Amino acid sequence: MYQEQYFLTIRDINYGNHMDHLALLNYLHETRVRFLRKSGYSEIDVDGLGTGLVVAELQCNYRKECFYGEKITVKMNLELLSPMKLRLNYQVTKNEGEVAANAIIRLAFLDRNKKVVVVPQWLQNLAKG
Amino acid sequence: MYQEQYFLTIRDINYGNHMDHLALLNYLHETRVRFLRKSGYSEIDVDGLGTGLVVAELQCNYRKECFYGEKITVKMNLELLSPMKLRLNYQVTKNEGEVAANAIIRLAFLDRNKKVVVVPQWLQNLAKG
Amino acid sequence: MYQEQYFLTIRDINYGNHMDHLALLNYLHETRVRFLRKSGYSEIDVDGLGTGLVVAELQCNYRKECFYGEKITVKMNLELLSPMKLRLNYQVTKNEGEVAANAIIRLAFLDRNKKVVVVPQWLQNLAKG
Amino acid sequence: MYQEQYFLTIRDINYGNHMDHLALLNYLHETRVRFLRKSGYSEIDVDGLGTGLVVAELQCNYRKECFYGEKITVKMNLELLSPMKLRLNYQVTKNEGEVAANAIIRLAFLDRNKKVVVVPQWLQNLAKG
Questions:
Q1: 3-state secondary structure of A39
Q2: Cβ of A58 and B60 within 8 Å?
Q3: Is there a contact between D55 and C61 if contact means CB atoms under 8 Å apart?
Q4: Sorted alphabetically, which InterPro entries does this protein's record hold (chains A, B, C, D) (predicted)?
Q5: Does C14 contact B14 at a Cβ distance shorter than 8 Å?
């Protein structure tokens, strides 16, 4: 399980005066990038061999309104659906653990010729463990 | 069925030099707002009585990479899941009809006190028709 | 002098793989909003009487490229140009004080009827002090 | 003189229910990219030799509030300040020619080693003409 915290900023707030439903998704993305970076990788080179990742599917259930300045916690874990398919399960909470949203992101991995390849071994290991 | 066309702009393009997966979702949002506006309403007042809508759930399957300057077509139709639940079904195509993405957005409707209310009648009618 | 720190996130990075020139400006905005909030106000109600502020002019000189994950410091001070005109002077630094950008934002204040009014007294006092 | 037209979209609108001051700047950027593209180039390769451009300075004066769905016209012309410095002068109008904003963007040109180089000849020619 990987976790990050963020304070909602003014660019997250839309004309309804609450967090935009799409603004939330940026924090899922940022969490993924920080996780990769702490392992020495990036979305563009996820294994040191030039394999990249793309989002194949995204699902999000919105449960609570969020507001400017609130602190949210994004928890993420990895689930291997098949050798080619990695799923990230996200939970976003605010305040004392209230669930603001649940989300799933399925990733695909592409080699330098944009051919789909298996999930890099280190991610498979983390997903299994 | 409601439909809009857009040209992808430079703010849609991310560091992978293709459309960001979240940028696509802005076009679903814009299509929804244009549809409401053509009917004389907005997300903040969807029935002339101050009822607002919020996104309760979002799903998107990404099928094709999209690039700067490409023209995309967003088709949207309405499906009534229950008197309280309206689902928007989206298909995003590019070029000669290649499917770039499919998406579903489930909406909830809130009165001025943020209490969930039934789908406004005119939307129920369109969803049924 | 008011000051905030930020870590650059993935949505700040554009297709040149560095911080977008417009992404930087969000941090100037966020700094202004945090400053107002710590004083108990917001852009929409800057004095407790419903006076709002708008950006009348913005200037930014870009000095250094910035990259994902870098920590930037935004310093802001207030300068009263006239009873109607408040200027915010910004300096953005990274690492050990390298200047990444200098910026100026001139604000105008509007009452509820969108008529330009004088700079609220508490801001005038801070600008003078 | 180069010109483009845009309809303001929902992601341009902020919690003040009008166009965000930073949203406007995206349209200056998009206009520049379209102009380059029509000449066969991009910001990353502005002369077919791998020379890139970066924004060195940006100034914008905001004159009129803009709202969702409004059509804006962005006019841009080129002014050569010195062999190394190109300035883009922008005027943004809405409705029947009301000026919404005036802006200036000064560009610098960098070779593949990020060394500043002269303005590409074809742009110098256009700026002079």
A1: coil
A2: yes
A3: no
A4: 4-hydroxybenzoyl-CoA_TE, HotDog_dom_sf
A5: yes
Contacts of A29 in chain C (CB under 8 A): 10-11
Q: What is the pLDDT of residue B79?
A: 97
Inter-residue contact A102 to A90 (CB < 8 Å) = yes
Please tell me the distance from the alpha carbon of residue C37 to that of residue C35, in angstroms, as a whole number.
5
Q: What is the DSSP string of chain C?
A: -EEEEEE--GGGB-TTSSB-HHHHHHHHHHHHHHHHHHTT--SS-SSSSS-EEEEEEEEEEE-S---TT-EEEEEEEEEEEETTEEEEEEEEEETTTEEEEEEEEEEEEE-TT--EEPPPHHHHHHHH-
Tell me if A26 and C9 make a contact (CB, 8 A cut-off).
yes
Query: Mind spelling out the 3-state secondary structure of B70-124?
Result: CEEEEEEEEEEEECCEEEEEEEEEECCCEEEEEEEEEEEEECCCCCEECCCHHHH
CA distances from D120 to A74, A129, C76, D52, D55 (A): 47, 55, 37, 10, 15
Q: Domains of chain D by range and CATH?
A: 2-128 (3.10.129.10)
The shortest C-alpha distance from D60 to chain B (Å) reads 19
CA distance B63 to A74: 27
With 0-12 / 13-18 / 19 or more C-beta atoms within 10 angstroms meaning exposed / middle / buried, residue D1 is exposed
Query: In degrees to the nearest 10, what's the CA dihedral of C54, D9, B38, B84?
Result: -90
Burial A64-76 (b: 16+ CB within 10 A, else e): bebebebebbbeb
C129 forms beta bridges with none
* Residue spans of beta strands (DSSP E) within chain A: 2-7, 52-62, 71-82, 85-94, 98-110, 116-117
How high is the ipTM of this complex? 0.95
8 Å CB contact of D69 and B37: yes
Give yes or no for residue D129 having a pLDDT over 60: no
Of the partner residues C16, C29, C65, the one whose CB lies closest to the CB of residue D22? C29
Q: What is the pLDDT of residues A9-66, one digit of tens each?
A: 999 999 999 999 999 999 999 999 999 999 999 999 999 999 999 999 999 999 999 9
To the nearest 10 degrees (0 to 180), the angle between helices D21-38 and C21-38 is 180
Element (H, E) at B3: strand B2-7
Q: Which chains touch C (3 or more CB pairs under 8 A)?
A: A, B, D
Closest chain A C-alpha to D17 CA, distance in angstroms:
5
Listed by number, the residues of chain A in 84-123 with a beta carbon closer than 8 Å to a beta carbon of chain C are none
Residue A57 near chain B (CB below 8 Å): yes
- Report the percentage of chain B scoring pLDDT > 90: 96
pLDDT tens sequence across C7-36: 999 999 999 999 999 999 999 999 999 999
